[in-house]
Design goal:
The structure holds two protein chains of two kinds. Helix content of chain A is about 25%, strand content about 35%. By secondary structure, chain A is of the alpha+beta class. In chain A, about 40% of the residues are buried. The model of chain B is unreliable at about 1-15 (pLDDT under 50). The chains are: A alpha+beta, B mainly alpha. Bound molecules: adenosine-5'-triphosphate and magnesium ion.
């Protein structure tokens, strides 16, 4: 059953930018959906409209069947975790968590019990008396998460909560948040512009560009079967090669690939791991650089007209810069007019 | 500490020592100026009001000028009107400037630029001009009277030459500084911390009470003590706009010195004013220290 329902929401800022453009999304109970997109694609704006911090120009947002489109944040059953600077530095950790409960006139004993339980959940048991300024960046974001969780919101909203943390901490907190989210079965919208974050956490990913949805799918589907060239280029590494199709053959420079579609321009998308190389008397590309990562190697190749493509190989030590090779795509997709028209 | 660590620490310490004379010099100049221009005259004034020659010319300890001040009805009335004016101004300043500062900090509208310009304007208007503007607008037969008359309304009871005259002038004069100090305090309140409070269910009033106010209480103290100290010892506006009796300590001192020709009396009044300002100052220092200890 869908808990959060976003229907045809548009937000135009006074400057005239369409930050979010006719956006629709349904989020099921207990689902974690990642909003993924480049900077400025409207992810934060969308999240802030769900939280009540921005008003959409048109469209409807309903939570549990109840319309909240124009309710202020304090009257919505949502809890938001901000990127940073959102803790109240004049209160200690306990008071930060208890503030919302006090506003709900909960008895003091019950508040203490709840706050302690949630602190335990985020791994900060016993930190209640600390001032927030005496915590590390990771601990501060855990307090921010706990502050939202303690109110048991119907929907948890996270706007790049780990962006200011280092790589290791980010990965650890990502797993913790995912664990907590699954344990509490709390419906979650998570904004990120890191694709590995989205791929590792999400039940579904919404790829956004220019305020519009590019694709909504499970992470593995988004990776394996990107529906638009934008998604293909944005998620993972992808060779996007522009060329012409004639008589069922795609041509770019010396590269030719059988492609059973109508004649005309097309963009061919091949993952590096799906592009095999072989020695050949009539080479189609020359090796530019070989990078050996130990477990595998990455080869940069140049077509005759200078187009750069990448290939992932198991034995990079057999290749030399300047060497001519043949290109053998194993799996690929083709796009025309921003739509996928073929997938092998 | 190992030998290596000692060796590494040495140049740093030498460095600090070689810089010391310059640092001391930099501190010495303001300290010297303060002693010369503030502390010495203060001590001088205090000692000249308590070590005085009696009728026979013997210099001795004598508190009679203070005894006179605190037993003289007129002096006490002047002190009372000064304290009253200061208190009323402080309250009005807070009531007027806090909403302006909050508006300037949180408004997204383009109007806020004009409001800011208007709020800061009094800073560039000398008090004399302010006083004459006041008289032309609110004084007898001033602009307000003329406008009221034109639409058939009765004459206003003008605040000119009443205790409210200086209050209005002093409040107007102190708005810019108060707004600017409050605004800088509000600048330290992050938008996200306010949004987080609304997110957990606080309405605008509660956000102000529980999130904004605790963060800017120091700024409020600073703003109020600046204006209170200035207003308590103000001269021009009470002199030009206030009643002749009772009068605020500023004009009172001036009159005691020039017209009554009683330098000891004027000095006594100055010392008493100084004492009150020190009390305000101590109160301010204590509150700031307590807030920081929290
Ligand atoms: N308050 C605002 N006033 C005017 N324009 C805004 C405002 N907030 C956002 N925008 C514009 O809306 C667009 C989307 O912004 P948004 O913050 O939603 O992007 P984002 O996807 O969250 O980007 P990032 O990954 O950098 O956080 C941007 O072009 C931005 O300039
Ligand atoms: Mg953002």
């Amino acid at each position: 059953m869908s808990v959060l329902h976003i229907a045809d929401v548009t937000k135009t800022f006074s400057g005239g930018t369409n930050a979010v453009d006719s956006f629709s999304l349904d989020v099921a109970d207990g689902e974690l959906v990642c909003l993924l997109g480049p900077s400025g694609s409207g992810k934060s704006t969308l999240l802030r409209m769900v939280g009540g911090f921005e008003q959409p120009n048109s469209g409807r947002i309903t939570i549990d069947g109840e319309e909240v489109t124009h309710l202020p944040p304090e009257r919505r059953p949502t809890g938001m975790v901000f990127q940073s600077h959102a803790l109240w530095t004049h209160m200690n950790v306990f008071k930060n968590l208890a503030f919302g409960l006090k506003l709900r006139r909960m008895p003091a004993a019950q508040i203490r019990e709840k706050v302690e339980a949630v602190l335990e959940l985020v791994g900060l048991a016993g930190y209640g008396d600390r001032m927030t300024t005496q915590l590390s960046g990771g601990q501060q974001q855990r307090v921010a998460l706990a502050r939202s969780l303690v109110l048991e919101p119907k929907i948890l909203l996270l706007d790049e909560p780990f962006a200011s943390l280092d790589q290791h901490l980010r990965e650890r907190l990502r797993e913790e948040v995912r664990d907590i989210q699954q344990r509490l079965k709390i419906t979650t919208l998570f904004v990120t512009h890191g694709q590995d974050e989205a791929l590792s956490m999400a039940d579904r990913i919404v790829v956004m560009a220019n305020g519009k949805t590019e694709q909504i799918d499970r992470p593995d589907v988004v990776y394996r079967d990107p529906k638009t060239p934008f998604v293909a280029g944005f998620i993972g590494t992808m060779n996007l090669i522009e060329g012409e199709v004639s008589n069922g053959i795609f041509v770019r420079s010396a590269l030719t690939v059988p492609l059973p579609i109508a004649d005309g321009p097309a963009t061919l998308a091949i993952r590096p791991e799906a592009l095999d190389l072989s020695a050949s008397d009539i080479p189609k590309a020359s090796v530019h650089r070989v990078t050996d990562y130990g477990s595998h190697g990455l080869v940069d190749l140049d077509l005759a007209d200078g187009t750069r493509v990448k290939s992932m190989v198991a034995h990079p030590d057999m290749l030399r810069a300047g060497q001519g090779v043949d290109l053998l795509p194993r799996a690929f997709a083709a796009y025309r007019n921003n739509q996928q028209i073929y997938r092998s | 500490m190992s030998e290596v660590a000692k060796a590494a620490a040495r140049p740093l310490m030498e460095n600090a020592q070689s810089r010391r004379p310059l640092g001391l010099l930099l501190v010495a100049i303001p300290v010297f100026l303060m002693i010369w221009l503030v502390v010495w005259p203060a001590i001088n004034a205090i000692s000249r009001t308590i070590w005085r020659p009696d009728v026979d010319g013997n210099v001795g300890f004598d508190l009679s000028s203070y005894a006179f001040f605190f037993s003289d009805r007129y002096s006490l009335d002047n002190l009372a009107i000064t304290l009253w004016t200061t208190l009323v101004c402080a309250i009005l300043l807070l009531v007027i400037c806090l909403p302006i500062a909050l508006y300037l900090r949180f408004s997204r509208s383009r109007l806020s630029g004009y409001v800011q310009a208007l709020a800061i304007l009094p800073m560039f208007v000398p008090s004399i001009i302010l006083a004459f503007a006041f008289i032309r607008v609110l004084g007898p037969n001033g602009m307000v009277d003329i406008l009221f008359n034109a639409v058939g309304l009765p004459k206003i009871r003008t605040p000119y030459l009443t205790p409210w005259g200086p209050v209005i002038g002093l409040v107007w004069d102190n708005i810019p500084l108060t707004v600017l100090i409050l605004l800088s305090g509000l600048g330290s309140v992050a938008n996200q911390s306010i949004e987080a409070a609304r997110d957990v269910g606080a309405n605008a009033l509660r956000v102000f009470r529980h999130i904004i106010l605790p963060r800017i209480s120091n700024s409020i103290l600073v703003a109020l003590s600046f204006s209170v100290l200035g207003i308590f010892s103000s001269f021009t506006l009470p002199y030009l706009l206030g009643p002749a009796s009772p009068e605020m300590l500023g004009p009172f001192m001036q009159r005691t010195l020039r017209e009554v020709q009683d330098p000891i009396g004027a000095m006594t009044q100055a010392v008493i004013a100084f004492g009150f300002c020190i009390v305000f100052g101590l109160f301010y220092v204590r509150s700031v220290a307590r807030n920081q200890g929290k």
